[in-house]
Amino acid sequence: MKRRSAGFTLLEILIVISLLGVMLTLIGGAIIGANRAVAKADRYSTRLDEVRASQSFLRRSISQALPLAAGSPDAQAPQIFQGSVQSMTFYAPLPSHMGGGLYQHQFSWQNHRLLLNLAQLDGQTLRAFGDPQVLLHDVKTLHLSYRGSTPTGQPSGWLEQWPWPARLPQAVRIDATLSGPVPWTLQSVALKLDLSAQAGGQ
Known about the structure:
Blueprint: H1 10-63, E1 82-83, E2 87-93, E3 102-110, E4 113-122, E5 125-128, E6 133-136, E7 139-147, E8 171-178, E9 187-190
Antiparallel strand pairs: 1-2, 2-3, 3-4, 4-5, 4-6, 7-8, 8-9
């Protein structure tokens, strides 16, 4: 009786190669999926940081708005705070790590971007401070509203246009819709210095 020679048959080798191919395909798919998940998580984290940083800067700037205005001190109607649905302008200090000092802050929504334009307040003179800066990209909509007191001391409710530029509002509400997975949380920012009920403001 003949002994069977040791080794694998051609069929067995083909089966093993086929199984290895299937395993490599599965492993490669898992690696690609994991890489995509990591990249997606990185993009989400980056976007979340951008949104939070923008909201933090807005809250800090608005809360520290001051009853200041540029131009002649004898002006009949100083422009202390200007607010509409998609833009607002006021005066506030910059953080010390950004150089400090008093600046006119102008926030606006243009071409799906939230922009900041700064001008340094030097006495009664405004000096342009660089080009407009993009605070946040991919902003689909922006809706600003303002609440304070009327010249007679009555609560104004939320207004889409601040009608008393010589007075500060009591609070600013910022609503927006963003592109991408990170939502905008409705912001309602109270001004630390509330002069909206001061007598004589118009």
